[in-house]
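Problem: given the chain below (360 residues), write out its structure.
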Amino acid sequence: MARVFNFSAGPSILPEVVLKQAADEMLDYKGSGQSVMEMSHRSKVYDDIIKEAEKDLRDLMKIPANYKVLFLQGGASQQFAAIPMNLMKNGVADYIITGQWAKKAYQEAKKYGKANAIASSEDKTFSYIPDCSDLPISEDADYVYICHNNTIYGTAYKKLPNTKGKILVADMSSDILSQPVNVEDYGLIFFGVQKNVGPAGVVIVIIREDLIRDDLPDYVPTMLKYKTQADADSLYNTPPCYGIYICGLVFKWVKQMGGLSAMKAHNEKKAKILYDFLDQSEMFHGTVVKEDRSLMNVPFVTGNDELDAKFVKEATAAGFVNLKGHRSVGGMRASIYNAMPIEGVEKLVQFMKDFEANNK
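Solution.
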């Protein structure tokens, strides 16, 4: 069977060259006589894999030497607790609520200190990014938290909030490596890898070293202390070895594609094809204000639930899969991450044009 065009929001499409290399190395990784899936995480051969993955990520993102890179488990959602546990020195944090994941992080943080929702776009179903130029930042806030790209709602920050000197923490799960990032703008960046980097099961934390504390409350689990993980070079316990290996292959692929500036140009070109069609279509409509549109996740609707369902069914049959919108918002959503080729978006738009012509 031919491969489909997979528009899933996560787990998501991976570059074919990466999948083929992983298949070629499945039984024998570089002459070791074993699969990465079965080798010891304490072995020299695996140590080389994780160190090279970190080096390639540092190269791609130009991560400064005073930031640690941690390969962890538990997904991005586990970081919703780990972040306040590790960073709440004063017991206060400010959250900007631009979607379901930021809201969940905020609710989790309330268990460990005083979390303030200082801005929100929930009044219009998270279809825009609030004005963050002059926010009521708490004087004693330990950090300001954002979700950089909102997978469900298709919004993204084009300009970072004015945190008035406070540390910025960002969930970049759905747009990491899609464009250049100035790491020094942030105290901590984290991302679940299953959207733009690798298979589900790995979460990566990039944290400034001065934020890694030893004086944490007794209730903080050993495994959730950044110091535990940093001191052990992400090998305190058995890491998600195979997932990290795939991430490493993807980092090399992004390098081969030309790095993050090239990825941004590639993603802008793809997104323009789809947004241009949505802007002129009589049947399909985007749901996000233009200035806040994501390059990664494009939600759209017909305005008719039955027509939406028909479209998803026919698109699936035609090889365009996972276009159904998140259950909380309905409609459709095309996730066009780094690995989605331009051809996939062009063919989707042609299918949408044909569907519109046939269902007037």
